Amino acid sequence: MVVQTEFGSVNIKSEVIQDIVYKAVLESYGTVDTGKQGFFDKIANLLTREETKGVNVLEEEGRIIVNLDLVLEYGLPVKKVAENTQENVYHRIESMLNFDDVIVNVNIAGLKF
Description:
By secondary structure, the protein is of the alpha+beta class.
């Protein structure tokens, strides 16, 4: 993502946005972890040595698209926790990057007891 300022341009890597999103997710109430929790998913992550932490950030047509795989705490309302996490991620990106064209997609990967 390239941001133009009065002094020149600033290039923000997608890994920086991924870290911002990851920290916002972990600060949200009811989210325990990120990432897919299946056996084959864990083996695939070990073999590829790719640590995405369940957060995928794409930049398309001038907008940021965030795809999240969340593990939620058992016993809480799933829809409400997902909506709160979505809103928290959106506002964190908006405030830290001063960018408001953000789409946040949430996939529930599992529940922890």
